[in-house]
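ERR on first pass: missing label on line 2. Operator R.T. fixed the label and resubmitted. Corrected input:
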Amino acid sequence: MEILSALGHGFAVALQPINLMACFFGVFIGTLVGVLPGIGPVSAMALLLPVTLSGSPEAGIIMMAGIYYGSMYGGSTTSILVNIPGEAASVITCLDGHQMAKNGRAGPALGIAAIGSFVAGTFAIVALMLVAPWLAKFAIAFGPPEYFSLMVLGLTVLAFLTQGSMAKSLLMACVGVTLGLVGIDQITAAPRLTFDRLELLDGVGLIPVVMGLFGVAEILANIERSVQREVVSARIGSLWPTLQDWAYSKWAIARGTILGFFLGILPGGGAVISSFASYALERRLSKRPEMFGKGAIEGVAGPEAANNSAAGGAFIPLLTLGIPPNVVMALLLGAFIIHGIQPGPLLITQNPGIFWGIVASMYIGNIMLLILNFPLIGMWVQVLKVPYKLLFPLILMFCIVGVFSSGSAVFDVFVMTVFGLIGYLMRKFGYEPAPLVLAFVLGPMVENNLRKSLILSQGDFSVFIERPISLACLIVAAAMILAPLLPVLRAKREAVALDQE
Amino acid sequence: MRIRNIVTSTLAAAVVAATATMAAAQSYPTKPITMIVPWPAGGSTDVAMRAIAEGASKILGQPIVVDNKAGASGTLGPATMAATAKPDGYTVAQMPITVMRLPLMQKVSWDAEKSFTYIIHLTGYTFGITAKADGQFKTWQDVVTYAKANPGKVTYATPGSGTSLHIGMEQIAEAAGIKLTQVPFKGGAETNAAVLGGHTMLQADSTAWKPLVDAGQLRLLAIWTADRSKIWKDTPTLKELGYPFVFDSPFGLAGPKGIDPKIVQILHDAFKKSLEDPATIAALERYDMVPRYMNTADYNTFVKQVIEQETAALSKIGLLKKD
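pass 2 clean. output:
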């Protein structure tokens, strides 16, 4: 009851015309930056932060939050339509989403992404409201040993990302891990693989690499096979998911939602990893794993739900502990402090208007996003009819602007270009970029947490099996790797293997 | 005749050039000034610098445009400025302490003493050591006692190796005659989680711990500023605890080398006035920064001192560049 009255108070705040407008503006901008490749929520929020200064703290923070979860909605659009992820969390959506578009099913793919996002977004808000303080305890229970084991589990996902040769996939993972080594080593502060270049001290950026491997490479690859594209535009087909699609997607959405939510709460976890993990989970559980990579709708529904509920989950450590679990939340923390409000354990009691106002605005924002996105599906699908000679220069321009704006460094544009060429060659020779991206994200985290764990345990490896969460992760990881050896599961594994040939 | 011509024209050219410089210095500034902030937009340093710049631009009569050029621990911006900007006073940068520290740790493109024209020293951060409120450490003395009995067993989280927090903690440990173990994390969010979750016993960081200390979940054992904080009145400073240190990762403003002293003076005066402006002070307070003014000459001396101190501290913890 207490929660209901507090929430009522929150809606009173969120429904004030100015806050309603801030919410709409936020989710609208969010959808836009989500759709545009390269331009992510971070650059949009950093640019708009000064704008919020003139208004009330409620309006400013509601808008900033809207940009963030709005961008998670929009991110899948270009992944599905042109095989270029709108932001890093949508990399995995390319795999099956774009295949669906090629089969003339862009509409259902976009539709299920929007519905999955809505369900996940709403679930995350309800959970945020009901169990935030308890979940914050869960988040801080994760120390270096737990992260290490979780990331090891994450790396087993590799086995399920592979469409073709396992050897090639492992090779790409090695490249990804090596790339992740570039920069100042966090433990000893020694520069590694930087070749005395100041630009490399912070490592190679995720956004330029992703935009290069997917965006630029896709454009290069399409230049030489422009004829094929006619097929895509000729068969746009139905815009809505069928009953059969629903049957495949509903549990994928549910699982993705829960998985994403828990990974989102963890500092350093987040949307990118959750979408990869959800994809692997769906492929593992699917009755038709052979369809993955060929347009399985559950391969779109699960990850898109996961990255949206991760976005919602990420608010928990920020609002309850004042700990931002990712860069976007750090920016939001900045917005709070600029307005003289300190998020943390005292936020709910000291500033109930802000806390409940944000929660209520997120309900409203999610509904706005659904309304905003459904009519847009028809429009986005029409994008496929735009001739490539017009579409691709435009996308390339957005990639360059986006990558530049993410760190205002020309160097990042060079990185993107180089990875574009590498990505193009990889396609030519049948190497996939997804394992590279996964290893690039997880590799440094595995190394770093392993070394921190061992500093803490004074060199004792048993720390990984003595701690229950860590042990559980390692057992699941072992099961994922060893499962194909068991007779019961072998049949399924063979179906996957067949697909690989 | 010809020689005289050349001499005359050279002289004339020199005179013209000198007059032009003088004219430039007298009318400076005639166009917007770019201020490089080597941290991401929206962070504490960015917002503080924007507030200081706003105050200064009112006095200069020209807008100051902030250019966020983050990277390489806050050195990428100043390094780019040193390499590419003209010393005309229209490009300046925030100078974090890492500009002086990084050249001691690895090969870089600049010389902290020679590549810049230091203008004015501005302020520094508030750092402190926190422990879990319901843990065994109630005071800093508890930490010292425990660490003496258990060398190396006390772990502390920092936002990174080679940061002011890491170097500061090691200097304190040395002065106290104890051995601590550093666990480097990525920034204040992770160190807060580490100490709150009981993964490390202590945390050394800037005031990202504020909400948790205020809520009684973390206890502030020591504060590293020169004077006690206005907010956490009961927490002793390092000096009070018997360690002759103030660590606040101080920062100021500089341009590329070779700026006309007259222009330096104009910039110095404007930024000094801004530092005294109540609006600026209020903005700094939000991030627990205290104005720490130094004029141009003192700042130059200070840079030399910092380099000496950092060299000594880094060599003790083995982070000094090997070559």
